[in-house]
């Protein structure tokens, strides 16, 4: 069972990944199902996916598994894309693929992410001593883009907003996958809006374009002292207005019942339930 990063047919691997992504029971939750979107998302990783890609093969050379990794040294965390493995090869190939790829990342915390229906991923995590974290509920809403003008209190975030955005961000999302500095980086992947009522920033929303017709809300929070005043809804509306896209998607942790009720009240439907898995300690994996 060779594990290799050499002489790889990248198009064949992409085809394999796309096929695996079609079912929640075999997909990596970091990616969608559309072939072009998957290709674009892999190209957008911080480290070139073709350089971190490792595959497993059968004795006859047939592709049986693939895995990719991305990391952020500032956050000291990596994200494992996959592993994607043929049904009957998880026990034999899974631990080796996972151990090989995480050894590439110069960080101490690694994460995998899959639908709760992906039993093989859950069993691999258990086998390798990874922690099963809280499930995430994915929500989606498709609605016409509001025709009214952007609320005057909402504007793009600037570098001067960093202290306030950082305070809100770290209080609401401690240890998450993106820092406040990244959210405010104009050359980065996120667009961030703040609501400033004249006395300071009361909330923010950070989002990305998703596919050809959607927007993904990565983070949204409102100052606890300013909640129940419609600020969250205004920020969601503003993200939709700024992108001109009708479909909005977001993810909520299972222990945030209040947030789930809030989005459901705004017409969002739950479309999936996913779970992250975290490594126990730096670059450790079980056979």
Automatic annotation (TrEMBL):
- Read off the PROSITE patterns from this record: GNAT
List the molecular function annotations (GO) for this entry.
acyltransferase activity, transferring groups other than amino-acyl groups
Q: Which Pfam families match?
A: Acetyltransf_1
Q: Which UniProt keywords apply?
A: Acyltransferase, Transferase
Domain N-acetyltransferase, which positions? 152-287
Q: PANTHER family attached here?
A: AMINOALKYLPHOSPHONATE N-ACETYLTRANSFERASE-RELATED-RELATED
- What is the official name of this protein in its record? Acetyltransferase
């Amino acid at each position: 069972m060779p594990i290799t990063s050499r002489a790889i047919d990248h198009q064949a691997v992409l085809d394999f990944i796309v096929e695996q992504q079609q079912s929640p029971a075999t997909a990596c939750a970091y990616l969608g199902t559309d072939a072009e979107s998957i290709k674009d998302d892999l190209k957008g990783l911080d480290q070139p996916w073709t350089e971190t890609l490792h595959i497993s093969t059968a004795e006859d050379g047939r592709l049986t598994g693939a895995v990719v990794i991305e990391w952020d040294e500032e956050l000291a965390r990596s994200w494992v894309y996959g592993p994607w493995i043929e049904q009957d090869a998880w026990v034999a190939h899974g631990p080796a693929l996972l151990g090989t790829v995480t050894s590439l990342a110069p960080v101490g915390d690694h994460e995998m992410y899959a639908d709760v229906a992906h039993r093989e991923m859950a069993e691999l995590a258990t086998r390798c001593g990874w922690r099963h974290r809280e499930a995430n509920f994915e929500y989606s809403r498709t609605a016409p883009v509001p025709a009214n003008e952007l609320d005057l209190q909402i504007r793009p975030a600037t570098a001067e907003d960093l202290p306030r955005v950082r305070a809100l961000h770290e209080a609401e999302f401690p240890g998450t996958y993106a820092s406040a500095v990244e959210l405010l980086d104009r050359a980065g992947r996120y667009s961030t809006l703040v609501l400033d009522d004249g006395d300071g920033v009361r909330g923010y929303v950070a989002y990305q374009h998703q596919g050809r017709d959607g927007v993904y809300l990565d983070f949204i929070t409102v100052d606890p002292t300013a909640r129940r005043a419609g600020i969250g809804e205004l920020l969601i509306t503003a993200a939709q207005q700024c992108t001109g896209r009708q479909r909005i998607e977001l993810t909520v942790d299972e222990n945030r019942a209040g947030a789930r009720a809030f989005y459901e009240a705004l017409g969002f439907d739950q479309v999936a339930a996913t779970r992250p898995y975290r490594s126990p300690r730096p670059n450790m994996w079980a056979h």
